[in-house]
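TASK: fixed-backbone design
INPUT:
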């Protein structure tokens, strides 16, 4: 996980800090999201976002997940279980949407993402990051994947432990605390981002 932004912590309150090199410029949506997370860092919703996928019948499926921080090129990181339904959904359709309302500052971020799943066969930086996040969970956090608390924390992640990496393609930022409300959209354009102000500004 990058930079000085500490991950908001897991459902179990566990925190991990990482110092992955920044190998791309920080995208504008991330600057806005990080600022909002800093302002509302004590609120529970700074930890939890909603991730929507599409199932085999084309129906939307939405669920809460814990934000685990940013990846090396500003991906949003999530941990999940290979046995969960979202795995099959994301394998069939890797495009998903994250929606995140930060009540403290009345801001909504809606992020269209392309998801990659890094489980037992993870390679390179994703394998390292997966192992680091597994170890950071400790014995109690690891129990979610094991079904029971191990006598001591395991160093090697179990096969069902999956790092879900969400690469943002488009980001919308709606602010309700301003009058009029403001809405900005950033769209990936090659190596950069196009910005459009939809409301306010
Ligand atoms: C506050 C909260 C945080 C959660 N965090 C995660 C998470 O980080 N990863 C995860 O896979 N499921 C998490 N869940 C459970 C999911 O919401 C969901 O129930 C589960 O992943 C199964 O979803 P699926 O059947 O669509 O795969 C969380 C649930 C709640 C209520």
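OUTPUT:
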């Amino acid at each position: 996980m990058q930079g000085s932004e500490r991950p908001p912590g897991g459902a179990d309150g566990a925190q991990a800090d990482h110092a992955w090199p920044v190998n791309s410029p920080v995208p504008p949506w991330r600057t806005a999201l990080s600022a909002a997370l800093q302002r509302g860092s004590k609120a529970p919703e700074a930890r939890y976002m909603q991730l929507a996928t599409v199932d085999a019948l084309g129906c939307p499926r939405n669920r809460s997940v814990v934000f685990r921080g940013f990846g090396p090129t500003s991906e949003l990181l999530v941990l999940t279980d290979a046995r969960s339904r979202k795995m099959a959904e994301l394998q069939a359709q890797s495009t998903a949407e994250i929606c995140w309302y930060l009540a403290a500052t009345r801001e909504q971020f809606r992020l269209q993402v392309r998801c990659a799943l890094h489980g037992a066969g993870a390679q390179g930086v994703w394998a390292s990051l997966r192992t680091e996040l597994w170890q950071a969970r400790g014995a109690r956090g690891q129990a979610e994947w094991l079904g029971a608390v191990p006598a001591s924390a395991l160093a090697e992640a179990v096969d069902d432990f999956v790092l879900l990496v969400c690469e943002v393609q488009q980001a919308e930022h709606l602010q309700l605390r301003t009058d009029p409300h403001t809405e900005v959209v950033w769209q990936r354009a090659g190596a950069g981002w196009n910005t459009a102000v939809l409301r306010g500004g």
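COMMENT: Residues 124-146 form the longest helix (23 residues).
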